[in-house]
Every structure is written in structure tokens, then in C-alpha cells.
Design a protein that fits this description.
about 425 residues, Glutaredoxin, Rossmann fold, 3 domains, four-stranded parallel beta sheet, 16 helices
């Protein structure tokens, strides 16, 4: 086992800042990170065991003790309760022969509560060994557990076909549905992928920033800070490296719009990151992907590899001399607070996801001390539409103070849960 763990360290060049990846890989290898593993990692990474232990114990999906063969994390959000979660929980306990928070005596099943897992439009939902099972019912639970007891794989035990769109992609293969109910300017598939990247030669970085400023695009992550102003601040800071981060850690209960964007419009999000990098001078790109969306990880990395192969990531992007930028996806491990930008940066550096004191702000000193811009998934998608069509076009949607559209995650006591793109409006 030590040789395999040593190979994991080599994979990440013994970099303590890649501790999250190292811990995730060890978890995949043996199911937990024990005290002996922590001591050994501390020696090899030149860190204190206390530091590593703090990281391991901070995140929901890490464990210091062996887990079951099948670890079932059942969403406990209010909408799941409305759709019969209690009956599903009771059935799981009866069928698995254990209670929540424990592992069955045969070591086959572990039952755990988890907060919103981004599936509120099709709950109750559970994550079992990183595979998502939606629309659970007592009957489906009994059949699922019975199949697993008989030795069927999780794929064989799937009780629904694959979902719509890219959910059926060979690198996704999930029963998740997008449930896109209303589309406008962002959720519009009538566009040429990466068209704006190929046209970037026609723009100066300053011109791109000016366009975003004139559009008055505000961050869609919650704070509503003007995106163009954030980019201008970041570009002004003198540094050997600049960083641009896509915040894909949506953990707000009832929210799942970023899940849909990353499933159906990953090219749009990544293109927005490339545009942002060009405008701000960023050469390091990071996507912080919540662990609950790990089932998209392979698919998203394939999209990034295709971009590299086509000269849309890497060195001299789109033939622009010295425009060097690449993107790495960093998985989280279950921590709601990591949606806050400075806590996310701490996590990206391999630490507990605890918010930093401000100032300095990330645009001045963020990831590894470099000036860092953090944008939401939806914000980056909007950037592509704005640069393509112009600021004045974007300003024709919405109100004076709230321009454009907003993606809404709708679930609960309603007939058609899903994603609705609506234009900002001024109601009396």
C-alpha cells in the first residue's frame, strides 16, 4: 500500500498544496485516510501531522476510519422531506440492517445524512460511491439494496435510464435530468462553440474589460459585485502569475443551476474563463468543483483536453502570442463554507476551508499569494454572450440596475421543478 501511496505523491510532485487531490486519491485507493497515513504524509510532504489531520477532519466526505463497501449519502434538504425522504430513510435502515451514521455489521452498507446535493428537482436523491441515484422511493430502495446484496454493480442496479442531454454521455452515464424549463440568452444552444476565443485577436484586453464594464454585468454568485471592475482591479496588480477561479461549489440549499450549466454548457463556462484570462492576464485557471458533482469530473476533463488539442487552452491560445493559460479542475470534499471565495482558496491550497480575514482581498493576494479573480459559473457563461453580442445588446435585457437574465433553481411544492432563465424585471 505504501508504494501505491508513494505513486500518488509522485503524481502531484510531492506538492503540499495539492493535499486535497492526494487525500481524495488515497480515499479512492483504500476508503479512508488513517492516522498512520497522516503521519507518513506529514513526513513526505514536510508538513505537520496536525495540519493534515485538520484538513482530513474538516471535510464531510473524508474519513479517518474504514468505510463500508457501499456508502450511501442521503440528501436531507427540505424539498427531499416534502417528497418522502422519511420513508426512504426508514426503508434504507431496514434493508441495510443499520441506522444512519453507522455501518452494517457485514460491512456492506454505510448510511449517512448529507446536505443539499444539487438534486432538489429530482429528490429524494442519494450519492452511493460517487454515483447519483435520484427520485428514490421505498420500493426502489428495496430493489436497489437487494441487487447490491446479490453482487450487482452500481451501474447494473440503476433503476432508470440515463438522463437527458449530456447526462447520457459515455463519460457521465447518470440518471440525472437537466429539467431546463425556460431558456433565453444564456441557455441558448444556437451558438458556435469557442467562437469568441477564435475572435479574441480582434480585441485588446482593455477592450474586453471595457465591454464587460459597459454591460454592467454583476456577479451571479450572490454578492453582485461588478464583474468588469473586479477584472480591472485584478489586472492592475503586478505579479509573476495571475489566477482566475471558477466557483462551481454551489451548496446553497435548493440550488442546482451550476450543475445544469456544467452538464450542458461546459464549453460556454470554459470559454468564459479563457476570455477572462485574456482580459486580466491570468495564466493559471482553476475550477473548484463540489464533490457532489464528481460524476461530471471525467466528462469535464475530456472537454478541457479537446480544447487543448484545438489550441484553445495552453500556450499561444488561438494564435495569440504569449497568451498562455490552462485550467485544472479541483474537487472539493464536502464543505458548504467553501462557496465563500477566500475559504475556497484555502481549500485549493490544501487547507481547511476557513474564510480569510480581509483585506487583502483575493484580487490583491489570493491563491498561493497571487492576485486571484473568482467568478461564478453563470457569470462566466454570461461573459461569452456579452463579448460576442456587445454590451448594448446585453443592456436591452433586464432593468437599469439589474441587467440581463438570471437562472433560477425551482423545486419544492411545484408541478414543474427545474431551471428557469428569466429576465430581471421591476415589479411594483
Amino acid at each position: 500500500m505504501k508504494n501505491e501511496v508513494r505513486n500518488i505523491l509522485s503524481k502531484y510532485q510531492d506538492d503540499p498544496h495539492r493535499l486535497m487531490d492526494i487525500l481524495i486519491d488515497i480515499h479512492d485507493l483504500q476508503g479512508y485516510v488513517g492516522s498512520a497515513d497522516i503521519d507518513w504524509l506529514a513526513e513526505k510532504l514536510n508538513m505537520s501531522a496536525v495540519q493534515i489531520n485538520e484538513t482530513v477532519t474538516f471535510y464531510h466526505f473524508f474519513s479517518k476510519t474504514p468505510k463500508a463497501r457501499y456508502n450511501i449519502y442521503l440528501n436531507n434538504s427540505i424539498t427531499a422531506e416534502m417528497r418522502g425522504r422519511k420513508a426512504v430513510q426508514e426503508t434504507l435502515e431496514q434493508a441495510c440492517g443499520t441506522t444512519f451514521g453507522k455501518i452494517s455489521e457485514d460491512g456492506l452498507f454505510g448510511l449517512f445524512h448529507t446536505s443539499c446535493n444539487g438534486m432538489n428537482d429530482q429528490g429524494p436523491a442519494a450519492i452511493i460511491n460517487d454515483k447519483v441515484f435520484t427520485n428514490l422511493t421505498p420500493y426502489r430502495v428495496k430493489k436497489l439494496v437487494s441487487d447490491l446484496r446479490e453482487g450487482k454493480t452500481l451501474d447494473e442496479a440503476t433503476y432508470e435510464g440515463f438522463g437527458d442531454g449530456n447526462n447520457a454521455d459515455p463519460d457521465v452515464r447518470s440518471m440525472v435530468f437537466n429539467n431546463i424549463r425556460r431558456q433565453m440568452i444564456i441557455l441558448d444552444k444556437n451558438h458556435k462553440k469557442y467562437d469568441v476565443i477564435k475572435l479574441l485577436k480582434k480585441f485588446s484586453p482593455e477592450g474586453v474589460i471595457k465591454t464587460i464594464e459597459n454591460s454592467n454585468l454583476r456577479g451571479r454568485g450572490g454578492a453582485g459585485f461588478p464583474t468588469g471592475l473586479k477584472w480591472r482591479f485584478g489586472r492592475k496588480v503586478d505579479s509573476t502569475n495571475h489566477v482566475l477561479i471558477c466557483n462551481a461549489d454551489e451548496g446553497e440549499p435548493g440550488t442546482f443551476k451550476d450543475r445544469v450549466m456544467l452538464t450542458e454548457f461546459p464549453d460556454l463556462v470554459f470559454e468564459g474563463m479563457v476570455i477572462g484570462a485574456y482580459a486580466t492576464g491570468a495564466n493559471i485557471g482553476l475550477v473548484y468543483l463540489r464533490y457532489e458533482y464528481r460524476y461530471l469530473y471525467k466528462f469535464l476533463n475530456r472537454i478541457l483536453n479537446e480544447m487543448r488539442e484545438n489550441g484553445l487552452l495552453g500556450k499561444n491560445i488561438a494564435g495569440i502570442k504569449d497568451f498562455n493559460f490552462d485550467i485544472r479542475i479541483q474537487l472539493g470534499a464536502g464543505a458548504y463554507v467553501c462557496g465563500e471565495e477566500s475559504a475556497m482558496i484555502e481549500s485549493l491550497e490544501g487547507k481547511r476551508g476557513e474564510p480569510r480575514d480581509k483585506p487583502p482581498f483575493p484580487v490583491e493576494k489570493g491563491y498561493l499569494g497571487y492576485p486571484t479573480i473568482v467568478n461564478n459559473v453563470e457569470t462566466l457563461a454570461a461573459v461569452v454572450r456579452i463579448v460576442k453580442n456587445g454590451a448594448e445588446w446585453f443592456r436591452t435585457f433586464g432593468t437599469k440596475d439589474s441587467l440581463g437574465t438570471k437562472l433560477l433553481s425551482v423545486s419544492g411544492d411545484c408541478k414543474f421543478p427545474g431551471i428557469y432563465e428569466v429576465e430581471w424585471n421591476q415589479y411594483p
